Amino acid sequence: MSDKFCLDLTHDELKTWCREKNIPAFRADQIYRWLSSGVINLDEMTNIPLSLRQMLDADFVFGSMTCVRKLVSEIDGTVKFVYRLTDGNVIETVVMRYRTGLSICISSQAGCKMGCSFCASAKLGFGRSLTSGEMFAQVILSQREVEERIRSVVVMGIGEPFDNYDNLIGFIKLATDKDGLNLGARHITVSTCGIVPKIEEFTRLDSQVNLAISLHAPDDELRRELMPIAKAYSLDELIPACRDYAEKTHRRITFEYSLFAGVNDSEAHARALARLLKGMLCNVNLIAANEFPGSAYRRSSREYVRKFQETLETMGINVTLRREMGTDIMAACGQLRRGIEEDKK
């Protein structure tokens, strides 16, 4: 038996498997349609002969993702799923409703190595990177559960996507496959804390996938306090890579900026940020800080958020305020996984 997860299979790999097993080619199309619609229970594949289902079961893993918790917000309908992988690792996935339809935030790793000081996942350690199929599974299994098509995907949950680069690219290929989910590349956003060589590699792909950068500070000294990755890649390296991405892809890049009271939310910080990004095709997404037990950070007041936004806009920077979703179900990244892992300990 192979340890390959069924949703890691591409359409071409299924065709090859069928050919090697002397199975008619049209069966690969049928199986792929089932998998792409979120069906990973072989008993539900009603037009596939039992003998073929048994062969699939012998060669691939089908039961490796289980939803162990589902929470629905009474405030805005946001749905949070906690999935347990076959090796016991736990990940989170969040489905949010906007005017344009459903958006899903998926995890790329079980845990994270980046160690950002404000992150709920940082102190829990690193499990492993997810496969392409495990990333894809979050989209199609959640879509099946909510019984409505997912319109956009953000790879912004637990983990650093560019620390799992090859599987990330594999996921994008699965999600955009015209024979499968057929999600447009422009409806996918990848968020990174700033691994510069991977940003450069991603730029060379010349895809239409959107890029978001977790910035959170306008200077290296403060950024190093918040994000250890800044010790490896300075803003003098990160910002030119971002400008290059925007210029070559003609896609507006988003800079994520969480506002922490008394840390990075002053008017001086806003002015420094505007100078840093001046002239770039970009948008700054201001985020209310994710407060959790044990965190040293508190969110900025509404007055400080308003002043920060106004300062950026006055200096010519496009700004959006991230809408808080699912606050009653701990929808922010890492909070539920943190609780589950702490309970286990």
Provide the CATH architecture of the largest domain: Alpha-Beta Barrel
- How many domains? The number is 2
Let me know the average pLDDT: 92
* CATH fold-type name of the largest domain: TIM Barrel
Beta-strand content estimate: 15-25%
Radius of gyration: 21 Å
Q: Helix coverage percent of residues?
A: 25-40%
CATH superfamily of the largest domain: Aldolase class I
Separate helix tally = 12
The structural class is: alpha/beta
Unreliable spans are none
Profile the largest sheet.
Answer: 10 strands, mixed
Q: How many runs of DSSP E, i.e. beta strands?
A: 12
The succession of helices and strands, N to C, reads: HHHEEEEEEHEHEHEHHHEHEHEH
Strand order of the largest sheet: 1-2-3-4-7-8-9-10-11-12
What does this structure look like?
The protein is of the alpha/beta class and about 350 residues long. About 35% of the residues lie in helices and about 20% in strands. The chain contains twelve helices and twelve strands. The protein has helices at about 10-20, 25-35, 50-60, 130-145, 165-175, 195-205, 220-225, 230, 235-250, 265-275, 300-315, 335-345; strands at about 65-70, 80-85, 90-100, 100-105, 110, 125-130, 150-155, 190, 210-215, 255-260, 280-290, 320. The chain has a ten-stranded mixed sheet with strand order 1-2-3-4-7-8-9-10-11-12, sandwiched between helices. Helix 1 runs antiparallel to helix 2, helix 4 (about 130-145) crosses helix 5 (about 165-175) and helix 6 (about 195-205) runs parallel beside helix 9 (about 235-250). The longest helix has 15 residues, at about 130-145. The radius of gyration is 21 Å and the shape is elongated. The relative contact order is 0.12.
